[in-house]
Specification:
mainly beta; Lipocalin
Length: 268
């Protein structure tokens, strides 16, 4: 994979357990004549990320914006805030996760092979993502691998004969000021994190998005995969707003020369 400036140099999420984040590229490096945005500012003129969360005309919090995780910690280990015994593995899943965790099979990681990280892995991955909110649906555009999600708010339900997918199928509803996103229909090929916690085609993910203030968004994630875990389990991640940036193109498979050097990489 080519070395890129700023976020383009983010290689670890797809190539190793050690993610390396370098200095971001200049703000709006690709654009000129960028219109001013309605960003609350403090006396010093800097964005006031502690200002109240904005709301739309329908009364719901406005979750729109470009968001970024606070580092790579949950992408590496989604259960980093839990005790080891609090991850309720099925025996086979515990054994597989242990085999993957030492890095000897990192070449098998789907993201190392330019395949989608899946949900919820992608929400914790350091490249930023843009949330676009409408009354009928929400779209999340991820810089990572130029991947997108649709979250439908119109009451539809997933059909029984769906095509299994990497990112799943998402529906959402509002519970007060919290957006509850229900995602299922996975193909069972994704890892929950870079340590290699497995998933199956029974994976069911519920995310609860709550914008605490202008610049901070909490995401509570419940993982329910009865084929891999004995019961549902929950983690909470936080992301922060990037008020003065835009997404860049991320073509993972462009001159991707690294994967063949990773332990456990498939023969090519």
């Amino acid at each position: 994979m080519k070395t890129r400036l700023g976020r383009r140099r983010f290689l670890g999420i797809v190539l190793s357990l050690a993610i390396s984040i370098l200095v971001c590229a200049p703000v709006y490096a690709q654009w000129v004549k960028v219109p001013a945005r309605g960003i609350p500012r403090g006396p010093d003129g800097k964005p006031n990320l502690s200002a109240p969360a904005p709301r739309l005309s329908d009364g719901h919090p406005d979750l729109s914006g470009v968001w970024e995780p606070n580092g790579n910690r949950y992408a590496v280990n989604i259960a980093r805030d839990l005790k080891p015994e609090d991850v309720p593995f099925q025996p086979w899943a515990r054994a597989l996760a242990a085999e993957r965790a030492d890095g000897s099979r990192s070449g098998e990681d789907p993201t190392a092979n330019c395949l989608p990280p899946g949900v919820p892995h992608i929400i914790a991955s350091p490249p930023p993502w843009r949330l676009v909110q409408t009354p009928e649906y929400i779209v999340i555009v991820h810089e990572l691998m130029t991947t997108w999600r649709q979250i439908f708010l119109d009451g539809r339900e997933l059909a029984e004969d769906f095509t299994p997918s990497w990112m799943g199928y998402s529906t959402g509803k509002w519970e007060g000021d919290t957006l509850v996103v229900d995602t299922k229909g996975f193909n069972g090929k994704t890892w929950l994190d870079q340590l290699g916690k497995p998933t199956t085609d029974s994976l069911h993910v519920v995310e609860r998005f709550r914008r605490k203030d202008f610049g901070h968004l909490d995401i509570q994630i419940t993982i329910d995969d009865p084929k891999a875990y004995t019961k549902p389990w929950t983690v909470t991640e936080e992301v922060h707003l990037l008020p003065n940036t835009e997404l860049l193109e991320f073509i993972c498979n462009e001159n991707n020369l690294d994967v063949k050097h990773l332990p456990g990489a498939p023969a090519r």
